[in-house]
Write a structure and sequence with these properties.
It is a single chain. This protein is α/β, with parallel strands linked by helices and about 300 residues long. The protein is built from seven helices and 15 strands.
Length: about 300
């Protein structure tokens, strides 16, 4: 996909290869289609292409096909409800239009992402978590799965959250995905907590054959609760997705996180190697974080500017 975005050359990009050679050329806007042909994640296609098309010569429309709600990747609902509002703090906006949802193993989903290029990215500061003000989400079924499964996932998640957070209304909507907007069968849930300072945290889970609905709901609820305990201002899945933007931004960015994930360490390693950005990771020194596993990731961005604008 990235080769095509910039008319580059790519060698060794086949299954079994241990080395690739990529020579990029000028990034161009316009319409680009990428199809995993499986339940491979459209969100991962979006992750890799977004930093590129921000520095294109003209607006882009990315037509991404594959899985929208798949394991080992953000669900499209996470991308739309958590990643999008936070990443837009870097000073750009994008539009994400879910045409068709696709699940494991068939895929068949399609998402259209539209965005305009920017001159440069602003740094971000996400260090003030605030207090949780809202908890909401959606529990979905698609295809042949009965609506009761969505209701059971939602109810189990609500019960689990109530044990720990009693003073907030938890609003998880059970949803039957319309037949013309979902390909194949799937079920899952995403729950989001919003704070007084605009931080967003999520827990999510996908149904699998032989796993009962309650279990799926509880797994998502427990993931959310653990992300609310560590005192960070981003959840464990947003950490690594922000690194590339911090590296490219103009100025110093800071995010407060819970334990730094291996994904994040990897993203930092490559951002330093490839973009020559400088990162520091240190334990948070705030009193309220003393008993917690909380870190500050700071980055001196390289101040990438768009030569086309």
């Amino acid at each position: 996909m990235i080769r095509d975005l910039c008319d580059g050359q790519l060698e060794g990009a086949e299954i079994g290869s241990t080395e690739i050679m990529f020579t990029p050329e000028k990034i161009k806007g316009g319409i680009h289609t990428a199809d995993t042909k499986t339940a491979g994640s459209v969100c991962l296609l979006m992750q890799v292409s977004m930093p590129c098309v921000l520095f294109a010569a003209s607006p882009s429309e990315l037509r991404l096909k594959g899985g929208t709600n798949a394991e080992m990747a953000p669900q499209i609902d996470y991308t739309a409800m958590v990643f999008k509002p936070i990443v837009e703090k870097f000073g750009f906006t994008f539009n994400c239009d879910i045409k068709m949802r696709g699940y494991y193993p068939k895929g068949g989903g399609e998402v259209i992402v539209r965005m305009s290029p920017v001159k440069q990215l602003n740094p971000i500061n996400l260090t003030d978590r605030g207090s949780v003000t809202k908890i909401y989400g959606r529990a979905f079924v698609a295809g042949v799965l009965p609506f009761k499964v969505a209701k059971d996932m939602a109810a189990a998640a609500v019960r689990c959250i109530r044990k720990e957070i009693r003073d907030l209304y938890v609003n998880i909507q059970p949803v039957q995905e319309p037949k013309d907007q979902a390909f194949g069968n799937g079920n899952g849930i995403i729950i989001i907590a919003e704070t007084s300072t605009g931080c967003l945290f999520a827990g999510s889970s996908l149904g699998k054959r032989g796993v009962n609905a309650d279990r799926v709901g509880i797994e998502a609820a427990e993931m959310l609760l653990s992300n609310l305990r560590h005192g960070g201002a981003v959840d464990e899945y947003l950490q690594d997705q922000l690194i590339i933007f911090m590296a490219l931004a103009t100025g110093i960015s800071k995010i407060k996180t819970g334990p730094v994930t291996l994904h994040t360490q990897t993203a930092i390693h490559f951002a330093e190697q490839l973009a020559k950005a400088k990162f520091t990771v240190k334990k948070s020194e705030d009193e309220e974080d003393a008993s917690k596993d909380t870190y500050i990731i700071e980055c001196q961005g390289i101040g990438m500017t768009n030569p086309n604008l």
